[in-house]
Amino acid sequence: xxxxxxxxxxxxxxxxxxxxxxxxxxxxxxxxxxxxxxxxxxxxxxxxxxxxxxxxxxxxxxxxxxxxxxxxxxxxxxxxxxxxxxxxxxxxxxxxxxxxxxxxxxxxxxxxxxxxxxxxxxxxxxxxxxxxxxxxxxxxxxxxxxxxxxxxxxxxxxxxxxxxxxxxxxxxxxxxxxxxxxxxxxxxxxxxxxxxxxxxxxxxxxxxxxxxxxxxxxxxxxxxxxxxxxxxxxxxxxxxxxxxxxxxxxxxxxxx
Length: 256
Hints:
By secondary structure, this protein is an alpha+beta fold. It has two domains: about 20-55 and about 195-250, no CATH class; about 60-185. The protein is about 25% helix and about 20% strand. The chain has seven helices and ten strands. It has helices spanning about 30-35, 45-50, 75-80, 90-100, 145-160, 180-185, 240-250, and strands at about 1-5, 5-10, 20, 25, 60-70, 85, 110-115, 130-140, 170-175, 225. The strands form three sheets. A five-stranded antiparallel β-sheet has the order 6-7-8-5-9. A three-stranded antiparallel β-sheet has the order 1-2-3, with no helix packed on it. Strand 2 (about 5-10) and strand 3 (about 20) form a beta hairpin. The longest helix has 16 residues, at about 145-160. It is elongated, with a radius of gyration of 21 Å.
């Protein structure tokens, strides 16, 4: 982020190209990435740097993409008509999944969020086939090698197979994203964390991303945090970016 006189006026790309902003810079990156990597230390108050040392990420993620020879044969008819399916056997299984993560263990019966869209958007897969994906949460800090990745992906597939007999026979190929691979693809996904930081009480509302910064504004004038590290956190609501845009418009005098 290019800062002059305490005000953000643009960004410098990795290749050296500079893009100058007429009104504001909105940072769709994690709070640690913004304050520790994209700003000079002199631009970040010492108290904020201290708070960021205690910043806590949310759980890691494992995602599997599948190319299938046909639609998933769910036993439940409603699941066949859904674009997104939550795979779990109720509150007890969800609680067990969460407890194992707290213990630092890989879930034995992982809760899955699964997407299957070819029925609604035929461009996603060849006729009669399906392109599906699912992800689940895992503890932070685990070491991942090919064996662990394959074994856990098998465990995820078993969760689907038990509710859609014949699912595994449809798998033409799969691609597994472990937490380290997610982070390699996007440096904001630290340890595979999708939500820009934990949403536990100590890091939500006015405490997000740190105490005293529970808003889109940053200590640098004209620079706004627009990512999931800002209030209200991760989700598909777009609220973090909307809050940053509104704050930037107010500061620019374009909105009251």
